[in-house]
Amino acid sequence: MKSDIEMNLKRLGMNVGSALMITICPFGLPAAESTGANEELISLPVRVFRLKSDASEKINCTLDNPALSKLFAVANESWEPAKIEWTIESVRNIRASDELAREFDAVPGGKDGMRKGVQILSRIYSADGFLEPGFNLVIVESMGPGAGGLFRAVPDGEIIYGNISPRGKSVPAILAHEFGHSLSLPHTIFETNNNLMMGAGPGRKPTRTKPLTESQITLARTQAAKGVPFRPTRLNAPAAPDKLFEYLDRDEDGTITVEEAETKQQPYVRNLLRLASRAPGDSLTKNEFDLFQLRNKRKQPPSNQGRRVAPPVSQIFSRADKNDDGKLSAKEAKGHVPSRNFKMADRNEDGFVTQDEMIATRKRFGISAEGFRSGR
């Protein structure tokens, strides 16, 4: 009898014999919500592209097949409660030209640098070889200090993952996190208990596995059932921001639901709930809505806040504080904080920098904890 995975691969027209199959291994998952006992396992094939280069250690992926299988197995542990399994359909090696490799190595840090780096990588691989339908994963050795991975929703919906994370080691939870983005899950706003989809900030810990909520599981399984990565669509709000909640709360019970929305507004409400990590059958209270709006407003700095000149302090510490002691040594800060800035922030000259010290130093130069330079 064929396994569910084999049947799924055959349905998608793949060569079962050539696929590298991964088995989920439950190694003591942390407390997390799980799907019902009757839910079927959804198996999602992933075509893996390992980038190779003789000219760039950052590009040249050193993951061999056994290590790649282990990476998927550990990433799958976080998805086991959702009964979603990521399987390797095939592995392809792509060699980068020396010219593009040198361009990638020269990319500076920060968001602008990350954007440019991704553009360079996309010139190395080609979507022509992507698995359709299915998921595609591009692996480099390191994406630098800015990030460990990302989901490039458009134009082709691939995941780019760095084998060596900003913490200086392989972190399968980063891959599991990016898998979540490909299944429509955004960064969390309300869940801070080391949730798989947390961005940078307090509450995120370097654990082997991370939990998902029932709402996240519902959203992920809905997208997974389609067998393709999530593609965002722009939906215009039906009212001004300060009037939106009252407009959508048609029954005036203090919550927003899809059910109460006008038929033409239901896609907007479903997406609003999704962005708040809520399933279509959930609701959003006024307090949650206000927090959601505030979070989105922070992502778009007002004109008097100026431009972002540095990453948020919380993000730096979540990535660089490898032993999670709440402070950075000069060694931990390397690649995340310029040495000159580290020395300025170390006011008591104890060889370490705390978040408070870094925030105070930024304040002296008119830069907020979130990394925005004050307007003048």
What descriptors fit this protein?
two-stranded antiparallel ribbon, globular, 34% helix, Recoverin, domain 1, alpha/beta, single chain, Collagenase (Catalytic Domain), 9 strands, five-stranded mixed sheet, 14% strand, 3 domains, 376 residues
Care to describe what's here?
The protein is of the alpha/beta class and 376 residues long. The chain has 3 domains: 42-225, Collagenase (Catalytic Domain), CATH 3.40.390.10; 244-299, no CATH class; 313-365, EF-hand (Recoverin, domain 1), CATH 1.10.238.10. Helices cover 34% and strands 14% of the residues. Helix 2 links the parallel strand 1 (42-52) and strand 2 (84-95). The radius of gyration is 22 Å and the shape is globular.
The CATH superfamily label of the largest domain reads Collagenase (Catalytic Domain)
CATH class of the largest domain, anyone?
Alpha Beta
Mean pLDDT reading = 85
Based on Cα principal axes, name the global outline: globular
Q: Please give the radius of gyration in angstroms.
A: 22 Å
Short description:
This protein has 376 residues and is of the alpha/beta class. It is built from 13 helices and nine strands.
What does the secondary structure layout of this molecule look like, with pairings?
Blueprint: H1 4-11, E1 42-52, H2 65-79, E2 84-95, H3 98-105, H4 110-124, E3 135-142, E4 149-152, E5 158-164, H5 172-182, H6 214-224, H7 244-248, E6 255-256, H8 266-275, E7 284-285, H9 286-299, H10 313-320, E8 327-329, H11 330-333, H12 339-345, E9 352-354, H13 355-364
Parallel strand pairs: 1-2, 1-3, 3-5
Antiparallel strand pairs: 4-5, 6-7, 8-9
Helix pairs in contact: 2-5
